[in-house]
Amino acid sequence: MIRISALILIAIGTASAADVTGKWNVTATSPSGSRQYNLTLDLKEEAGKLSGTMSGPDGAVALQDVKLEGDQLTYTVPAGSGYKIKMTLADGSMKGTYTGNDGVTGPAVATRAAAASGIAGKWKAYAKAESGREYNVELNLATDNDKVTGSLIAPEGDVSITDGKLDGDQFSFRLLLDEGAYAVKLTVAGDTMSGAYTGPGGEKGKVTARR
């Protein structure tokens, strides 16, 4: 069952229900502001009617009473005693509140999850280890539904990436080299990516990439 703080939402940007369909990354904050909960909201539209689910660490729940009026989206999450969500589109993201029938309330925001296809293509990447060693390489990425494949092209040769995954704006993959495995985690922001990697022997470093 979704926890109370995990009950939040999304909203809409125009008068068309289709504008909010798809997956959204949601962050709900506890009433005290001391905790945050990361959730996934998936909205669909059928025959002009919105429906959807919200997923969190405790599972998924179907939304009820989804209504769209202008730029305001409201719906109920039937978990616990029930929670009502009110969200408004603001600068391409969703902002609003969740309120429980017991009076508990808190803020929630949502950003549209990036589709895997959005990172396909060639990227120029630069990595610098904590030791000062530098790497200039190229990432050639391809996508198949939600799976990310591709290769890293370096002066020493090419190597295929493994376990490629895009979760919201978080892109991760591994490189299996002779000296060991490298794990890379990057945050995608349009035509740029930045993050860090860990390698064999405890090697660590920063990574940036630009399409």
Structural overview:
It is a single chain. By secondary structure, the chain is mainly β. It has strands at 22-29, 36-46, 49-56, 59-62, 64-69, 72-77, 83-90, 93-100, 105-112, 121-129, 134-144, 147-154, 157-167, 170-177, 180-189, 192-198, 204-210. Strands 4-3-2-1-9-8-7-6-5 form a nine-stranded antiparallel sheet, with no helix packed on it. Strands 10-11-12-13-14-15-16-17 form an eight-stranded antiparallel barrel. A hairpin with a 2-residue loop joins strand 15 (180-189) and strand 16. The radius of gyration is 20 Å and the shape is elongated. Mean pLDDT is 83; it is low at 4-18.
- H-E order: EEEEEEEEEEEEEEEEE
The class by helix and strand makeup works out as: mainly beta
Oligomer: single chain
Q: What kind of sheet is the major sheet? A: 9 strands, antiparallel
Instruction: Give the termini distance in whole angstroms.
Output: 41 Å
Give the overall form: elongated
Mean pLDDT: 83
Number of strands: 17
Strand content: over 45%
Write down the Rg.
20 Å
Number of helices, where a helix is a run of at least 4 consecutive DSSP H or I residues:
0
Order of strands in the sheet with the most strands? 4-3-2-1-9-8-7-6-5
Low-confidence stretches: 4-18
Helix content: under 10%
